[in-house]
Amino acid sequence: MKAFIALEFEKLLANFNKMAGDPGLSDNIVGAVELCVKALRAGGKVMFAGNGGSAADAQHWAGELVSRFYYDRPGLAAIALTTDSSILTAIGNDYGYDYTFARQVEALGRDGDVLVVISTSGNSPNIIRAAEAAKARGVAVVGFTGEGGGKLAPMSDICFRIPSSETPRIQEGHEFIGHLLCALIEAEMHPRAAN
Predict the structure, then answer these.
(1) Average pLDDT of the residues in 128-143
(2) Measuring CA to CA, how many Å separate 97 from each of 22, 89, 91, 122, 127?
(3) Nearest-CA neighbor of 76 among 181, 175, 171, 173?
(4) Structure confidence by residue, pLDDT tens digits, 121-130
(5) Which terminal residue of the chain, N or C, has fewer Cβ atoms less than 10 Å from its own Cβ?
């Protein structure tokens, strides 16, 4: 067990060192923050979607914006499209699972909003359809994928491609970047006093 634990730490650190050494990653983070802040300042919102563990990330990040991250401030308009069982089951029953997020984007998305979509493969059909629905409505798409990027990468205005093919490593990278986005959006929308 200890050998396995040590190996997992090695893989985590190697992955984060690759991320830290990618000069384009910081630019993408800044770009994604700017998209979200622009939407929020214009009275828009940030929507989040993902499946499985990525659904948990969607809910987590929406919660950080609506409630608080580092400090108390007014809530920010964010919604996870993964949480309403009546909506999810109605869409799944009436249109099929591939439309669970797209239909919500069609109903809620407005020009200037942002959709953050999370898929470790970049190929989840319901995520791809959500991105298509967003693009059709003038909603910016911020994608989170693994190193391959899948179909989602070219559909995204900004795509965070974690440099790994292992799902746990990809998810760890997503979580780190998601936290950075929440912290920076919070700071831009409601700067703290200099102290």
Answers:
(1) 98
(2) 36, 8, 7, 17, 10
(3) 181
(4) 999 999 999 9
(5) C
Task: State the helix-helix crossing angle for 53-66 and 167-189, rounded to 10 degrees.
Answer: 10
Angle at 180 between CA 37 and CA 176, to 5 degrees: 140
pTM greater than 0.90:
yes
The tokens for 116 are 């953050």
Is the confidence at residue 194, as pLDDT, over 50? no
CA separation (Å) from 122 to 36, 39, 148, 153, 160?
21, 24, 8, 7, 10
Q: CATH homologous superfamily for 2-189?
A: Glucose-6-phosphate isomerase like protein; domain 1 (3.40.50.10490)
Cα distance between residue 55 and residue 3, in whole Å: 31
> Do residues 73 and 190 make contact, with C-beta atoms less than 8 angstroms apart?
yes
- Average pLDDT (134-149) is 98
pLDDT at 6 over 80: yes
In angstroms, rounded to a whole number, what is the distance separating the alpha carbons of residues 96 and 23? 40
Query: Under a CB-based contact definition with an 8 Å cutoff, are residues 145 and 122 in contact?
Result: yes
**Cα(174)–Cα(163) distance, integer angstroms:** 11
Question: How far is residue 171's CA from residue 174's CA, in Å, rounded to a whole number?
Answer: 5
